[in-house]
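Progress narrative, work stream C.
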Amino acid sequence: MAKVSMTVNGKAASAEVEGRTLLVSYLREELGLTGSHVGCDTSQCGACVVHVDGKAVKSCTMLAVEADGAEVATIEGQAAEDGTLNTIQAAFQEHHGLQCGYCTPGMVMSTAALLKENPKPSEQEIRAYLEGNLCRCTGYHNIVKSIMAASGQDISALAAQ
C-alpha cells in the first residue's frame, strides 16, 4: 500500500492505495468522481482523459502513485460552482457534440487541452488532435463544430457540410 496525496479539482485528496491502482480507479472508486469513464482498458478510446499538472492524460494508463503531489482536473471540476457549464461544455450542448455522453468527458477534457495549446485550431487540427478519442455515436462532425464554436470561430461553413 502507498499513500497518495494530490489536489483534485482544487481540493486536497489523499488515500492509501495499492501500487497498481490506476488513476482512473482512484478517481472513480476512492473519490467518487465517476465522470472519467473506462471505455476500453487499452488507452485507445480517451473516455478517461483528465488533466495532470495541466496536461491531458489518459487516466487508465497512469498509476495513482504517479500522480502523487500533482494537480488533477476532471470533468467534474469544469463547470462553475453553481453548475453553470463552461464554454466548452456549453458548446458541446448547443451544437449537439454529444449523444450517449460516454465519450463526452474525455472529449471535453481533450478539447480544453487543445484550446489551451492552440486557441483557434482548424478543422483538420481538431480532427488530428482528437485521434485518440473515440466516439461511436456522433461521427465527429458535431464534436468538431462544438470545438470550433467553443474557440469562438465561425462554424457556418461546417454547418453547410
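Work stream C, second folded protein:
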Amino acid sequence: MKRLLGIAAALVALFAAGALFGWQGVVLVMTVLIAWLLLQFARLMKLMGMASKGPVGRVASAAALDGQLRAGMKMVDLLPLAGSLGEKLPGTVQRYGWTDAGGARVEVELGGDGRVQRWTLIPADAH
C-alpha cells in the first residue's frame, strides 16, 4: 500500500510540475525522483556489501538478535542486525538461520512480501 501511495504521489508531483512550470518542472521532478532512486540503490549496495563480509549464517549473538527481531521487519532491516546473510534452510517457505559461536541458533521465517513473520531461538543444548 505504501508503494502505491509513493507512486501516486510521484505521478501527482510530475503532472502538477508540468501544469505549473511546463517542461522545466517535469525535468526538475524527474531529477529529484532519479536522485532518490540512486540513494536507495546506494543504500542497498552498502547493506549487501556489509552483509557479504560476514560468514553466511553466522551472528555474534543469537540471543541478542532474537531480542531485536520484530514481526513485520523487512529483510533490509534484519541484515544490519545480523551482520551477515542468513543460511537458507530447507523447506517450501522462506526460512533463514543464523548461528553464534556458542551454538545457539535463530531461525527466521519470512512471508511472501519479504517481511519477518515469526522466528525461533534454539538454544545450543537443544540440537
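Residues 23-53 form the longest helix (31 residues). No further action is required on this item.
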